[in-house]
Design a protein that fits this description.
mainly alpha, Multidrug-efflux Transporter Regulator, Chain: A, Domain 2, MerR-type_HTH_dom, DNA-bd_dom_put_sf, HTH merR-type domain-containing protein
Length: 110
């Protein structure tokens, strides 16, 4: 089906559907160079994205960024580094730090 019909079925405007496509919230176009045709897979993907947005109270752009962090290791690492810096994520403990703390505990016990 064409974008106009798909948008009507989903209860949104064709512009909003194109916006979601630009954000990467739709499966890739099957035939390169042709207009997107919407089938059950595309409609189900949009419906699932809408459910996630409502459930977690996020925008389409926020959901797209979350997907990007899951699919691009460099982005995931940058977000993790920020989370550690601002205290939202606990820094991973290295084995050497654990051994150092263990030795300090043993020395304090004497």
């Amino acid at each position: 089906m064409r974008i106009t019909e798909a948008a009507a079925r989903l209860g949104m405007s064709p512009r909003m559907l194109r916006y979601r496509e630009a954000l990467g919230l739709l499966p890739p176009v099957r035939d390169k160079g042709s207009h997107r045709r919407f089938g059950t897979e595309e409609l189900a993907a949009v419906t699932q994205a809408l459910e996630l947005e409502r459930r977690f109270d996020v925008s389409p752009a926020e959901l797209a960024f979350a997907l990007r962090t899951l699919s691009e290791p460099a982005v995931a690492q940058a977000v993790r580094d920020l989370g550690i810096r601002i205290g939202r994520i606990q820094a991973p403990r290295r084995a050497l730090d654990f051994e150092k703390e263990k030795a300090l505990r043993l020395l304090r016990g004497r």
